[in-house]
Amino acid sequence: MSPLHVAVGVILDSDGKILLTRRAAASHQGGLWEFPGGKVEAGESSAAALARELSEELGIEIERATALLEVKHDYGDRSVVLDAHVVWAFRGPARALEGQPMAWVKPQALYHYAFPAANAPIVDAVHRLLL
After folding, report:
1. Residue 116: phi, psi to the nearest 5?
2. Sequence spans of domains, the chain
3. Rounded mean pLDDT of 5-12?
4. CATH fold of the domain at 4-130
5. How far apart are the C-alpha atoms of 23 and 31, rounded to whole Å?
6. Do residues 90 and 61 make contact, with C-beta atoms less than 8 angstroms apart?
7. In the chain, pLDDT over 70 holds for what percent of residues?
8. DSSP characters for the chain?
9. 1 touches 16 (CB < 8 A)
């Protein structure tokens, strides 16, 4: 089974806080916090997938983003490849269009949130970048 390819956004607001969303309880790794994003469709770049997912889930439009890192992780029941990007600027107010809980958090507070294991390298990379 090929890994699930996911585009992930570390979204920064003007105060340097990062947007987190909580996974639905019934989903894989449900109830944990994550950086918003979603599945990369066949023939789609990770940047295009991220733009599409953030528009669908949060109602925002990316103005400036850069690649952060790629994470490969095997959960045992599912393998994932996460393409993480830092979203430095966006247009529109972020809204939970799918009813998901959201939180804007300071980078130093990220370690206080429970994330899926595949997100740990992203949290570390954010700390190195922003702190």
Report:
1. -60, 150
2. 4-130
3. 98
4. Nucleoside Triphosphate Pyrophosphohydrolase (3.90.79)
5. 5
6. yes
7. 100
8. -PPEEEEEEEEB-TTS-EEEEEPPTTSTTTT-EE-SEEEPPTT--HHHHHHHHHHHHH--EEEEEEEEEEEEEE-SS-EEEEEEEEEEEEES----TT---EEEE-GGGGGGS---GGGHHHHHHHHHHH-
9. no
Degrees (nearest 5) of the Cα angle 41, 63, 119?
55
Tokens, residue 74:
């095997």
How large is the average pLDDT for residues 47-52? 98
For the entire predicted model, the pTM comes to 0.96
Q: Kindly state the average pLDDT of the residues 51-65.
A: 98
**Quick check: 128 and 120 in contact, CB under 8 A?**
no
Token pair of 96 as six digits = 């939970």
Given a contact cutoff of 8 angstroms between Cβ atoms, the answer to whether 95 and 17 are in contact is no
Taking phi over 0 as left and psi of -120 to 50 as alpha, with beta for the rest, 99 belongs to: left
Residue identified by tokens 């790629």 is: 70
- Report which residue type is found at 85: H
